[in-house]
């Protein structure tokens, strides 16, 4: 145990954020560089090294949290990095982007603020990169087997790295022009600078993983032909079919899916554009959807100089504290103020969009530009969402982003049909206990098989699917499998 009295002697301290006025002028990460290291040893000492560490239950990766907390307390950064990487291929991703179900399950969190597990995690990995403790791990020998991984998000990258280290020859196919999936083009730079992805890609290249960008399986390469070319295939294409909003006026210009809007802003940071083709500058922006993707749209609109930003959520405002119906150690639905929300804007709960109102089409155009969004307040009556009469109103909206989640994997590119894959009742690719689909040698990992989920679950899926692939290719495997396909988050 790091310090038997650490949780008594020290309160919770988190990473400092830069002043709002400063960070809105750039796209760098919102945190003050180096602000964690001076406090992280004390924060790690708050870990009680519980006999039954429930943080393990909250984390699908099975991260050895008390162990690396102890090493961080003692400032043994090399040992901490080794323990961290024992269960997680990319802790710099989860340490920045995961909503930390481990902290929700922290035993200290029963009656005190939980241990800052995410902050300790990101401190360890950032220190490891600084000191050279992160190095390529090339396999000692090659198996002679080949694997294609479709998709380069966290699930695909985790599966690829595990299989490469097991000695298989792995090629990752990505339809975008750069590796990273939603990590690259869905997560704004201010949440995670893309240099963190780039150095992991270089590590994986040094280990032997091959990358093929700008290639969409199903369109550019027939899926059945790909299956014949490789000994095994891992589908990690995500659940990229966005939930739409079929209301009058949806066809107006200025109404976009979040994943049409956010990637363009990231491409500006990559140097592909001088200015984004879809900008919030000077516009009244409305974001429909109260989750993390919606918050990403809010922060992006702030940096583009929006005149106003309003975020709409159909559900009631969550509480500030755990409710009786969400007891520890489940992951509670709490009112969350992200860095984007700190920067301004209005959040409106319990409302539903009825229609959009637009301007008259310009000459030569068939539709006009969105100008207003009409909404109505809603409430639950006998468990059914019902509109409240007399609460209709409209708000200005010259740019609207739809951030309402995703409904399943892409069916339009032909991948599912060309492989001949079975789908489950929720539209996800069906798989067995080994993450194998109904097609022998074809496996699925991440959101494509699980449905929309968290980055930590994606990495766990990739690691687990890699074990299934390794066993399929060799008859046995020493690779870890932290989860089963049927495992779910610790919620109620």
TrEMBL record:
Pathway: Amino-acid biosynthesis. It comes from the Bacteria. PROSITE patterns: 4FE4S_FER_2 (PS51379). Residues 38-69 form the 4Fe-4S ferredoxin-type domain. Keywords: Amino-acid biosynthesis, Glutamate biosynthesis, Oxidoreductase. The keyword Amino-acid biosynthesis applies. SUPFAM superfamilies: alpha-helical ferredoxin, Nucleotide-binding domain. This is Glutamate synthase subunit beta. It comes from Streptomyces flavofungini.
């Amino acid at each position: 145990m790091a310090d038997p009295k650490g949780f008594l002697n020290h309160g919770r301290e988190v990473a400092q954020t830069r002043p709002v006025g400063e960070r809105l002028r750039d796209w760098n990460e919102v945190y003050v560089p180096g602000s964690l290291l001076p406090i992280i040893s004390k924060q790690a000492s708050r870990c009680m090294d519980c006999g039954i560490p429930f943080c393990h239950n909250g984390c699908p990766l099975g991260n050895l949290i008390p162990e690396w907390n102890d090493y961080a307390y003692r400032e043994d950064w090399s040992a901490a990095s080794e323990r961290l990487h024992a269960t997680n291929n990319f802790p710099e991703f989860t340490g920045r982007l995961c909503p930390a179900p481990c902290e929700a399950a922290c035993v200290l969190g029963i009656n005190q603020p939980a241990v800052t597990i995410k902050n300790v995690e990101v401190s360890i990995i950032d220190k490891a990169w600084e000191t050279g403790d992160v190095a390529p791990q090339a396999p000692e020998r090659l198996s002679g087997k080949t694997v294609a991984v479709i998709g380069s998000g966290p699930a695909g990258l985790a599966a690829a790295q595990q299989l490469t280290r097991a000695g298989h020859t792995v090629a990752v196919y990505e339809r975008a022009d750069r590796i990273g999936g939603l990590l690259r083009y869905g997560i704004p730079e201010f949440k995670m600078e893309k240099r963190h992805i780039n150095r992991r890609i270089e590590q994986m290249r040094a280990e032997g993983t091959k990358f093929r960008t700008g290639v969409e399986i199903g369109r550019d390469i027939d899926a059945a032909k790909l299956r014949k070319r490789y000994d095994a295939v891992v589908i990690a294409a995500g659940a990229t079919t966005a939930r739409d909003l079929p209301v009058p006026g949806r066809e107006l210009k200025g109404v976009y899916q979040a994943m049409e809007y956010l990637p363009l802003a990231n491409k500006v940071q990559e140097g592909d554009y001088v200015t984004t083709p879809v900008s919030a500058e000077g516009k009244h922006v409305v974001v429909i959807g109260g989750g993390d993707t919606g918050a990403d749209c809010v922060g992006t609109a702030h940096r583009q100089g929006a005149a106003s930003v309003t975020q709409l959520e159909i559900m009631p405002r969550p509480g500030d504290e755990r409710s009786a119906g969400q007891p520890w150690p489940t992951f509670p639905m709490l009112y969350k103020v992200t860095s984007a929300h700190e920067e301004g804007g209005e959040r409106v709960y319990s409302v539903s969009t009825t229609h959009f109102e637009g301007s008259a089409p310009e000459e030569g155009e068939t539709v006009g530009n969105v100008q207003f969004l009409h909404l109505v307040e809603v409430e639950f009556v006998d468990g059914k969402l019902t509109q409240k009469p007399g609460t209709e109103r409209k708000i200005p909206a010259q740019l609207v982003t739809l951030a309402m989640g995703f409904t399943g994997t892409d069916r339009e590119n032909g991948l599912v049909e060309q492989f001949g894959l079975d789908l489950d009742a929720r539209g996800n690719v069906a798989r067995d206990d080994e993450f194998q689909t109904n097609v022998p040698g074809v496996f699925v990992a991440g959101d494509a098989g699980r449905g929309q989920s968290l980055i930590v679950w994606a990495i766990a899926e990739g690691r687990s699917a890699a074990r299934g692939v390794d066993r399929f290719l060799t008859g046995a495997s020493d690779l870890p499998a932290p989860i089963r396909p049927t495992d779910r988050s610790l919620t109620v």
